[in-house]
Structures are given as structure tokens and as C-alpha cells.
Specification:
Naphthalene 1,2-dioxygenase Alpha Subunit, Chain A, domain 1, 8 helices, alpha+beta, 412 residues, 4-stranded antiparallel beta sheet, Rieske Iron-sulfur Protein
Length: 412
């Protein structure tokens, strides 16, 4: 349980809130799926930490990332003409290059070049990795870019989809790291072929947690004793502030899933799913989802519609009445309200991981308030590429730390 002050410190990101300021300064933020930006195509509107931006891909493939409003009169640059490696405002023809240089101000006539040099266009550095455009919104020296294990894979080794949600970003984080819900919330899916490796989650819903603190966050093992002197162990990696890396359904060589959020504002988020496989081609969709629009792949209904729950489907034996597994996660997160009231919680032993991540987030933002670089920020010699989730059914007397991650499939 958190009191109101702690909850707001952890959750709020708008208007100079400490958490938002910390994320802005010390972390690269996931902004938009890279495939959404076509060379000379339509710019994309992006909202992060309560501010509005525009992302666009130039003729030569480079990506520009600006404040959305034209510095002239504030017209949205998402309406702009994207052509010849420049974005031109349709209102008065002011023209901007990918690097933020103002190329032309035709309303100034012969004085255009001199005037253009004075225009304060706000633009931001970007990186393209894992099918995502990442942006840094801070000032001064750029922070280290985290080389997570899915960042440098070939395009056939990962897929990326995302979903906007009407809830605070921490609710997305907590849903990702809560292993105890898998065998309950998702029970109607556990017998399908793609999920049969996780069917053991139903044999024991009482999860035994063990944790290892890491410079980047936590390694958490969730153990279920399933009889015959065996136990099923899922080892999740969590990289602060929001990267939950989930074990494969079919270990050891199945697809992993990285789930993380972009805080849109105080009460909205964009949740990203990167399905990746270091060993072979990755599956297209995460957790058996029927992917339509990859930028909104599992939309849910409103609260008045019970978030899209189908009670007739429940009468036929389906546990939740949601036709997509991830819709079950999204509905539970959004149903907690725009910002979950954590003063009213009554936590159990299954919430140990959630509690630790909350402490980690609060510790980081308090370090920032003290003028320090958060201890979880990228840097310090951490090799993020070696952080890998895993799962296995092992003998009851074996330690979870013995579950190995082979470098290649040939090591089997």
C-alpha cells in the first residue's frame, strides 16, 4: 500500500512532476513504431509525458522529431508536407530539415535566410532500434542507449505491436510483472497449443518468489510446485523503469516477449510488445493475439461496456469473456481507474514483485530529486544484451539459478 503522496510521486509525469522530469532527462523513451513512418509519408502525432510532438521520415530515411506546433503560429506540423528531406508547414510554408534547421521562411522574402536562423524550432535526437523510434527529450549530454537483447536482432527475429490505453503508465508496468495472475486470468488460453508450455501455471496458483537485485532492476523467479517432485519456474527480468521481459511459452528456444510502456500523460499510456527470438524467426503476434492494426492491436471497450467483456462467451465456459488474451490484461489495468488508488489495496505475498518495483521507482525519482543520476539509469558497465528471461520444468530440489540460457540452438 502506498499513501497518496507516494502514489503521485511514482505515477505523475506531466507539468514538471519529478517522475516525468527524471524520465525526460535520463532515459530514451519509446515513441512510435518505426514502420508507421514512411519516407515522404504522413507524419505521426506522438504524445509523451503530457507534451505533443510530431515524428516524420524524410526522403532519405532519416527521422525527425519536433514539437508538434509550428514555431510560427502553432499549427500542427502533422499536417505538413513531407518532401525533399524537409517538413513544410501548410499554413505559411515555413520549411524545416530533419536536423532541426529552418530551411526557408518564404513570408520574409529577401530576409528569409537571416530570419530563419533566429527561429527556435525544438527538435530532439532519435534512435531506431527493434522496429521502434526512440527519443530523448532531455537537455545536455545524451544518456547511454540501452542495448537490450532485442535491439540488434535481424528483422525476422522480432515483431512489434502496441496499444494505447486509458490508464496511468505504472498500471501497465505492474500488469507486466505480476506472474501470479497468469494461471488465473489467462486460464482459458493455457491449453492451446501455443501456450501449452505454460499450462503448469494452473497446477499451482500459489507462487513462490525469489528475487535478485540488479543494477538495472530485478531478476525474479516465480516457482510453482506441480507434483512428481518437479517445479515449474518462470524467471522474469525487469529493467527499470518499465521493461518487463517475459519467458517463452515453449522453453528454452521459444519467443520471448518484452513489454513496456510510454507514458502518454498522467492518465494514458502506449503499451509496446516486442516478440523476439535470438535463435530463429520470431512469431508475428504476441501471446496468440489476432493482430489487425499493429498500432492498436487489441482495443477494448468502455467502462459502460464492461471493457468489451462477452458474458455469452463466459456462459460457454470461457473464464473472462475476452476474445484476446492481452485484452484480459488491458481490461484489468484500465478497470483500476485512470490512476489506481493504492491506499485502498490489501496486498498479499503474491505481490512481492510489484512492491519491489514500486520501491525501485520511488528510489530512482528520489535520487533524481537529490540531484543524482538515478542508480538504475543506463550506464555503469551493465551489458543489457545479456539480460534474458527463461523458464523450465526442473527437479524440485534444483535451484532456479541453474536454468541456463544457451547461446545458440546447437548447444541443445
Amino acid at each position: 500500500m502506498l499513501d497518496r503522496e507516494q502514489n503521485e510521486l511514482m505515477c505523475l509525469v506531466e507539468g514538471g512532476a519529478p517522475m516525468g522530469a527524471m524520465l525526460r532527462q535520463h532515459f530514451w523513451l519509446p515513441a512510435v513504431r518505426a514502420a508507421r513512418l514512411e519516407a515522404d509519408g504522413a507524419p505521426a502525432r506522438v504524445r509523451l509525458l503530457g507534451d505533443d510532438f510530431v515524428a516524420w521520415r524524410a526522403t532519405d530515411g532519416r527521422v525527425g522529431f519536433f514539437d508538434e506546433g509550428c514555431p510560427h503560429r502553432g499549427v500542427s506540423l502533422a499536417l505538413g508536407v513531407n518532401k525533399d528531406c524537409a517538413l513544410t508547414c501548410i499554413f505559411h510554408g515555413w520549411r524545416f530539415g530533419v536536423d532541426g534547421k529552418v530551411l526557408d521562411v518564404p513570408t520574409e522574402g529577401e530576409n528569409s535566410e537571416a530570419f530563419a536562423a533566429t527561429v527556435p524550432l525544438k527538435h530532439y535526437p532519435v534512435r531506431e532500434a527493434a522496429g521502434i523510434i526512440w527519443v530523448w527529450l532531455g537537455s545536455g549530454e545524451e544518456p547511454e542507449f540501452w542495448n537490450l537483447p532485442f535491439m540488434d536482432l535481424a528483422p525476422d527475429r522480432y515483431s512489434v505491436i502496441c496499444q494505447p490505453l486509458d490508464a496511468n503508465w505504472v498500471q501497465g508496468v505492474e500488469g507486466t510483472i505480476d506472474s501470479s495472475h497468469v494461471g488465473v486470468l489467462h486460464q482459458s488460453w493455457m491449453q492451446q497449443d501455443w501456450a501449452k508450455g505454460m499450462s503448469s501455471t494452473q497446477k499451482s496458483t500459489a507462487v513462490e518468489y525469489d528475487f535478485e537485485d540488479r543494477p538495472y532492476g530485478y531478476t525474479a523467479s516465480a516457482t510453482r510446485h506441480i507434483g512428481n517432485d518437479q517445479k515449474y519456474v518462470r524467471v522474469t527480468e525487469f529493467v527499470l523503469p518499465w521493461f518487463g521481459m517475459i519467458p517463452p511459452e515453449t522453453p528454452p528456444y521459444g519467443d520471448r516477449t518484452a513489454i513496456f510502456v510510454a507514458p502518454t500523460d498522467d492518465t494514458h499510456m502506449m503499451q509496446f510488445f516486442v516478440r523476439f527470438n535470438p535463435y530463429t524467426e520470431a512469431g508475428l503476434d504476441g501471446a496468440g493475439a489476432q493482430v489487425g492494426d499493429p498500432d492498436a492491436f487489441a482495443p477494448i471497450g468502455s467502462a459502460d461496456e464492461h471493457w468489451g467483456q462477452d458474458r455469452e462467451l463466459m456462459k460457454k465456459g470461457h473464464w473472462t469473456g475476452f476474445r484476446q488474451l492481452v485484452a484480459e490484461d488491458f481490461a484489468t489495468q484500465v478497470s483500476q481507474g485512470p490512476i489506481a488508488d493504492r491506499e485502498k489495496e490489501y496486498l498479499s505475498s503474491s505481490d512481492q514483485f510489484v512492491i519491489r518495483v514500486r520501491r525501485g521507482l520511488l528510489r530512482a525519482v528520489r535520487e533524481f530529486q537529490e540531484g543524482k543520476v538515478p542508480s538504475c539509469a543506463p550506464g555503469g558497465g551493465v551489458d543489457f544484451s545479456k539480460i534474458m528471461p527463461r523458464a523450465a520444468t526442473i527437479a524440485a530440489d534444483r535451484a532456479w539459478e541453474e536454468i541456463e540460457i544457451p547461446e545458440t540452438m546447437e548447444e541443445a
